[in-house]
Design goal:
Low-confidence stretches: none
Shape: globular
Number of strands: 7
Largest sheet: 7 strands, mixed
Distance between the termini: 37 Å
Length: 202
Amino acid sequence: MTDARLRGRQQFLLLAVLFFAPLVAAITLYFFTPEWQPEGRTNYGTLIQPARPLPEHLTLQDAAGEAVPSDVLRGKWSFVYVGGADCDTACADKLYQIRQIRTLLNEKRLRVQRVYLAPDHAAAVAAQAQLAPTHPDLHIFSETDSSRVLVRQFADGAPQADAQALYLLDPLGNWLMLYPAAAESTGILKDIKRLLRVSQIG
């Protein structure tokens, strides 16, 4: 009986490897080896090459001051907006844009999350009070590390980015795309639809 269970587990693991290996290989080739990408492929946003993994020691808290799981920016595609001391008109417009894009994904919207990264806890509290009524699904976080390692990674990787830039992270926790303030919804939507189509992760 024990041998039968062992064989059953081995067969299950083998099937799992056979199922997931092609997906992992396809994602790896598509995102991390540009030479394998089709010549005619175009991205609306700026593709970060190579994709940049999230900082190893990333610590985030929510507006209530509670620590959030270390994998909160993994498992789903994440549109990250870096907020300021308050959310002004330009900020509100950007958040509305991202909300509309996610809504247009229909059932696939569950694979995408929106994240507002506040500069500090006080700003996160203010953002929660201001934005929760109109953006109930928006995740509002701040970094507990005063060095703001995630914000610095975005700034270091995209020195030309403006205050209204939008950052796209993949479900594996890699910074993949950058969209400037002037990016149009149709282009961003086209990109995320393509990514959701070619990738079964997240």
